[in-house]
Predict the structure of Sugar ABC transporter permease.
Amino acid sequence: MSIATTRSTATARSAEAGRRRPGAGRLGRQTRHGWAFLAPFLGLFLLFEAIPIGYALVQSLREKQWSGLGLDGPVERFAGLANYRRVLEDGEVIDGVLRMFLYGVVQVPVMLLLALAMALLFDAGVARGRRFFQFSAFLPHAVPGIVAAVLWAYLYVPGISPVVGLLQDVNIEVDFLGPDTVLWSIANIATWQWTGYNMLIIFAALQALPRELFEAARVDGAGGWGIAWRIKIPLVRPSLVLTALFSVIGTLQLFAEPMVVRSLTANVTATYTPNMAGYAQAFGLNDPNYAAAIAVSLAIVAFALSYGLMRAAQRGVDS
């Protein structure tokens, strides 16, 4: 037998052995099973996330154009980045973004500090009736945002609010719906509704920490404050980052609370937040293309802020 024939025979046998290799068929079945488990998620993601985002992106690159007297209706045409230039030049949208930024800079840290303090108190067992207070803290989150806004609006309106009435009895005049206070009245609604939710996330992380660390710290002479500051808070940093990320996204989605308060005061305009501006353009002025540009721009800002927050948190962990 020639050397060439021997080599070809060996190659064929190796290929056949590879085809018959134990586990190859099992690996293929596992791959198919994996895709089968992923299929429901991928289908829902494609239907409710990818397709709407793609549609909004396409709509943001188009605009309506009327010809003649406009009796034949508008015709959509490709507009490129014209709608995005409008967003950057729209003073009302820019004011809404700045207002939302101020809201987030104040409201998010206050809410997370309250949530962290409550979680630390519950974890330390300082508060009696801990389960009752935990349930009470989480209960506002179970109230829909619209209902919460209506409840608090009742407490803001002079003449029917018991809070305003009590303050007036002690000669304290507060206009919760005034031009300088209405933003913080809205922030109070969101803080009331979401503090308990964030508290539970942080509290769950605290409960997962090994108790031996705290006992060792007490043996070394550390007090409750020292344990909380030097051990508990650093170890639950991922949960703090997660709650901060959720809170930033929630700030960018601010819509329901100012929409309800808007019916009570003229100090909340139709473009008070970027989401309200997009809603007004789409359903009030019948300009869905510009509304889509506002939505996509806001999504880009949300992605940038979320990515920056995650990167900053990662650098903090690495250092």
